[in-house]
Design a protein that fits this description.
RNA polymerase II general transcription initiation factor activity; chromatin binding; metallopeptidase activity; Peptidase_M4/M1_CTD_sf; 247 residues; Neutral Protease, domain 2; two-stranded parallel ribbon; transcription cis-regulatory region binding; 10 helices; disordered N terminus; mainly alpha; globular
Length: 247
């Protein structure tokens, strides 16, 4: 589809929005970038054979713009870290949905995703966001090796990214909105700085993020160490299951 061409969504056209001094406005800047796409697409409506309508279309466009920040401009250091880029993009899209479509719509979609993650883990086994390269436990519980992009099941990868969205959401609530966006802005500002020095290949590594470097940035920016969080939700699988009864 021409609407998703690089001419419209090319990241350099929206990167100016991340150069903000006040970290509290980062979410608003992402929304502004999303509406920039809507405006550009609207100006092309007379030259296109279809019209941008429907809630699903707008949400997919929002996700596409968010992935220009995390997934295009800032990339994963390894396949095992891809969950982080996809999850950050989904989380930002969720903020857009909550703000412009309402809290009820956002919670409804969160509930649907939560059910799909829990159903998969209950039926097929635990989903580990960041399995260690030397960890054979994940491979033993599955009929494929999730540590390699060529052998990982597409359904497993889909659930992996959905679960990552919840983990990033939990992290944002645990750190607080302001500290979390300070972490996000730190990652973007470092990538922006080294993107101006692309002639030196050694600088390319600073435009990638691994799970370890992300949580190292969390510790440096917020001063919080999260060993239990990492053990339970990043390097471990499963989900909480509560049984409630009344007498």
């Amino acid at each position: 589809m021409a609407i998703l061409s690089v001419n419209i969504l090319y990241h350099k056209k929206i990167l100016d929005t991340v150069q903000v001094r006040n970290t509290a406005t980062f979410g608003a800047c992402c929304c502004a970038a999303i509406f920039w796409v809507f405006r550009e697409c609207g100006s092309l409506a007379g030259h296109m054979a279809y019209e941008i309508t429907g809630e699903e279309t707008r949400q997919l466009l929002a996700l596409a713009v968010a992935q220009q920040f995390f997934g295009c401009f800032v990339n994963a250091a390894h396949w095992l870290d891809t969950w982080l880029m996809r999850s950050l993009a989904s989380f930002i899209t969720g903020l857009f949905i909550e703000r412009y479509f309402g809290t009820s719509e956002y919670l409804f979609r969160i509930r649907k995703v939560l059910n799909s993650v829990c159903d998969y883990e209950s039926r097929w086994g635990q989903v580990v966001l960041r399995p260690l390269k030397s960890d054979c436990k994940v491979k033993q519980e599955l009929h494929f090796d999730a540590r390699n992009s060529f052998t990982c099941s597409p359904l497993y990868a889909e659930i992996l990214f959905k679960k990552g969205h919840f983990v990033v959401r939990m992290l944002a609530k645990r750190l607080g909105k302001e500290p979390f966006f300070q972490v996000v802005q730190k990652i973007l500002s470092v990538s922006m700085q080294f993107s101006q020095q692309q002639k030196e290949p050694i600088n390319w590594q600073h435009m990638t993020v691994s799970t370890e470097s992300f949580f190292r940035t969390v510790s440096n920016v917020t001063g919080q160490e999260l060993p239990t969080f990492l053990e339970q939700w990043i390097y471990g699988g499963g989900h909480a299951n509560f049984q409630v009864s009344f007498k």
